[in-house]
Design goal:
mainly beta; single chain
Length: 171
């Protein structure tokens, strides 16, 4: 009988940098192949080869993303997710438009309950439990990437602030 191994970790913050209008990170001026995307240590890409939270793994083939913000019902924000290999440029995995619902993290802080995706990934980017005033879960495979990098481009509707993205690696 074959042994099935599953690796699950706790959630950790996928630190995102803020930017203005959406632009393609792969075309950014001065980006060097093989170097993680621009940013300080605090805004560096998430390295998928290091341990996350209480998990015991050092590599994940999939991640789940959750998003919350200080926001009103139906506020939105646009976020791009990039995958980066050790010796390649950043590759856009998807552009995500999160819509915040009525499920509360705490007073005035709401979970995203919907996500519209523009998928540019060779794998699958999927949103589960969407548009139900619960917590939308976005999953994507990370095969071939060492780093994940996220950029919040704009708050498109309303005035969402303190946008936080949680990432849970699994395989």
């Amino acid at each position: 009988m074959a042994t099935v191994t599953s690796i699950v970790s706790s959630y950790s913050n996928l630190v995102v940098s803020a930017a203005g209008a959406e632009s393609d990170l792969a075309a950014a001026t001065g980006y060097n192949i093989g170097v993680p995307a621009p940013g300080t240590t605090a805004l560096a890409p998430k390295d998928l080869l290091i341990k996350h939270g209480g998990g015991k793994h050092t590599y994940a083939t999939n991640v789940e993303l959750l998003c919350y913000a200080t926001s009103n019902n139906n506020d939105t924000c646009t976020m791009s997710i990039y995958g980066i290999s050790d010796s390649g440029p950043p590759e856009r995995i998807a552009s995500l438009i999160y819509i915040f619902g009525t499920a509360l993290v705490s007073s005035g802080v709401r979970w995203a309950d919907s996500c519209t995706r523009t998928d540019t990934h060779t794998g699958t980017v999927t949103a589960f439990d969407t548009a139900a005033n619960r917590i939308v879960k976005v999953t994507l495979d990370t095969d071939g990437y060492r780093y994940l990098y996220a950029i919040i481009h704009t708050t498109t509707t309303g005035a969402a602030t303190n946008i936080t993205v949680l990432m849970r690696p699994f395989s």
